[in-house]
Amino acid sequence: QVQLVESGGGLVQAGGSLRLSCAASGRSVSRYAIAWFRQAPGKEREFVAAIIWSSGSTDYADSVKGRFTISRDNAKNTVYLQMSSLKPEDTAVYYCAADRQFAQVMVRPDYWGQGTQVTVSS
Known about the structure:
Distance between the termini: 40 Å
Largest sheet: 7 strands, mixed
Number of strands: 11
Shape: globular
Order of helices and strands: EEEEEEEEEHEE
Helix content: under 10%
Strand content: over 45%
Number of helices: 1
Low-confidence stretches: none
């Protein structure tokens, strides 16, 4: 099992930046893939970005490519989501998630964090 705790959400103006953190704990964390999802009010949860912990390979949703960067810090067992050029439509609760399979983490991961609110004002 793996436990995930997100932090770093908040209120930011359009065009600004924010960095989210996902602290992972549990056995063999490095064997997992980690993803970020988001859910805006009245909308379905959507995939944002993912990373394979061991290799660092990444994937992104088209809506955030070139603006968001996912990375990990092995020493801190933490995955980050650096968000830049933020838009009001990026407003959502952001969740990190984990799964042993990279393909699976982007669609139906086994483990979820509790979420952190990101609000982008216009």
